[in-house]
Automatic annotation (TrEMBL):
Protein name in UniProt: Beta-ketoacyl synthase-like N-terminal domain-containing protein
A family per Pfam: Ketoacyl-synt_2
InterPro entries according to UniProt: Ketoacyl_synth_N, Thiolase-like
Organism: Luteimonas terrae
Coiled-coil intervals, chain numbering: none
Stretch list, region Disordered: 35-57
Biased composition regions of type Low complexity, renumbered to the chain: 40-49
Amino acid sequence: MSTGTAANALSATIAGIGFWADGLPDWATARAFATDGSRPESAPSRPSPQLLAPNERRRAPGSVAVALDVAQAACRDADIAPETLPSVFASTHGDLGITDYMCDTLAADPTAISPTKFHNSVHNAAAGYWTIGTGCTEATTAISAYDATFAQGLIEAMMQLATGAPAVLLVAYDTASSGPLGTLTHSEGLLGAALVLTRDGAGPRLTATLRDGTDLDLPGPLGTQAQANAMAQMLPLFDALATGGSRAVLRAGPHRTLSVEIDGARADAQS
């Protein structure tokens, strides 16, 4: 995709949206908060993805729980069977709590490493749970690109559409940091969102173009609410979608931005 060249822009239609943030456990409540500041009277403290069996649901780390929850919500919203979708899972850090546990235990008592936590420490853990739980045999990709992770995940998903996939699931999420890692890469709370993107359809149409520069929009309501989470980088797009905005600018790498034009306001909300 050439810098700033409209002829080389990527496009996609949003068929479904899933969202979870602390205090805003779905896209409907996130939209309400972004438009009028309202919040639900009570909200769960943690996602509870029904894709997992009850025992697995309780044991799943926050990164897996939020990723699966928003992925399922986006597929329901799109009314597309999840097992038919190739997927892109984007996370800045994976699960920082587990990474901190692994480092601490390896330094203090290496033989005490929990096999379950080791299993969940890999960056594509959420993608693995998703493909197993849904029975999906389509391709899945796990991406990390620091503060450009969401933009690069969106580019990857849109490239897959441009090269033949009829629909792609994009899932983005991050967790809170802890321990010494938290002093180097700070992140708070739990945040995740998912988009089912299609080549055609009746939803909002995205057109994305890479540009040189570093200028970003000021945070909107959702961006302000969850700005301390490492995946807050995705929230300019979700603020625009929630409020009927026509454009969002995302950080796409050193001295690069991804300009996303939005054509068509979304008329309904995922419940």
